[in-house]
Amino acid sequence: MNFDRYVFASPYFGWLCRGVVMTLVISLLSGTAAACVGIGVARLRLSPHGYLRTAASAFVIIFRNLPLVPLLLFLTFGLPGLWSQLTGDTFPRGFEFYLLILGLSANTGAYFTEILRAGVLGVAPQQQQVARTMGLSTAAIRWYVVYPQAVRIVAPALATRWIHNMKNSALALVVPLPVGLMEVVGQAGRIAGETFSWAEPLIVVAAIHLVLSLGTGRFLNRWASRAQARVEARPA
Amino acid sequence: MMADLQHIAMLLLLGYPTASEMLDPDYPVLMQRLGGLALTLFITVAGLLGGFALGVLLVACRRNPLIDSRRDPGERLLGRTMQGAATAFVEGVRGLPVILLVLIVFSLPYPLSGLRLPGVVLATVAFGLYAAAYLSESLRAGLRAVDPQLRESGRVLGLSGMQVFAHIELPIIYRTMRPDLINVAVTVFKDTSTLAVVAVPELTYTGRQMLMSEPHNYGIVLLVVLFLYWVPSTVLSAWAQRTEQRQTRLEAFTSTQIGTLMNKGERM
Description:
The complex is a heterodimer of chains A (236) and B (268).
Chain A lengths: L2 H4 L3 H36 L4 H15 L3 H20 L8 H27 L2 H9 L4 H16 L1 H14 L15 H12 L3 H35 L3
Helix pairs in contact in A: 2-3, 2-5, 2-8, 2-9, 3-5, 4-5, 5-7, 5-8, 6-7, 7-10, 8-10, 9-10
Chain B lengths: L1 H13 L4 H5 L12 H27 L10 H23 L2 H10 L1 H5 L5 H26 L3 H9 L4 H31 L11 H11 L6 H48 L1
């Protein structure tokens, strides 16, 4: 074990710092996209139209049960191949990054959908009637009455899923990204490729990931328990 | 046609030969080990079984009887150390991405001990550790669902300690954990796909290598791979959901029944 030589040396430490930034960027981008997907599809799942509900539950059932590694491999190797076979064009270089975000957010979005649907169903339907009587528009009811409470009801589940999504960003390792966009596990692989030593960078990266997920977990759990306290405090 | 059959056999049963196997001149043409979906399932089941055993051990450490203010300080310190170590392990494994856990298990033993273990063994160890962390959490929830008064009631009725455990407590623990147990199994099954990065010839690795070696199959192979993962996980998660709903209904029913009985008792 020689951490001074393989981790805290001139180019390698910079690579890892770059990796930490990219881990955060990937998890933020895919988490935000997943939240948008979740809100949208959850709304479809509760729509009065049967075919929209079917489409939304099909999305959930498909992406919740697909493992991410083959999904990302399909998106970044299979899909560009099929594309070039069909059209004769190649995917633009660097497109893999967007496909990675797409895959991660489809997976997390499917989980978010289910969680948010449960949250919306947890808000008493009478509240919507009251809000309607008070003259709020449908959109206003949704955004000012239902969603804030729904999010609070399912806050712990959302927090858990957000952290899962952050851990999933490590799967960017299987995607061919330019070195500047690699996240921290990918950077560890890059160091190992140059030094033929996996152990040291991996131990440091494991510590980084633990700090990231436990730290984010601590932060989100505090938010979730505050939200839960507000749920319990509301009048029945 | 023959080529298709060979591909199907690779995906389901044989797996794609790894680089070291291809370099080996004595390597049999017809592969003599499991691969593809069969290997994925084998690692899943072996990992879950090992993980369950380790999970029971972890729960025993976290709830051990040595942490008791009536014990002497030495024993209490030992108990606290065991509890701390088990908690740290569970939190650590749950805080790491699976792919990182797999990489660590595959790359640490050799530089530390000079031991070269076969990939399947390391894969089983990695997923055993992973499953243990998650199973110990659901096992703890299952144990918490047991009302301590049940044991006393059972003993009063003349059952032995073992009988109380086997006939009263165990069914409650099992029923409480069952949905979680199935969900952990699905998660492990899906997450074994990360083994593709360490060249274990399981389903995802096989699919990827087939794609690389025959680019005209682009995409289709991986769609088949995705389908092979999707079917079992969908069936199992649907089962988990159904047992969970039944469990919720049962609990609601039992609590109302007990409530009615108690009200009657009060009136008498």
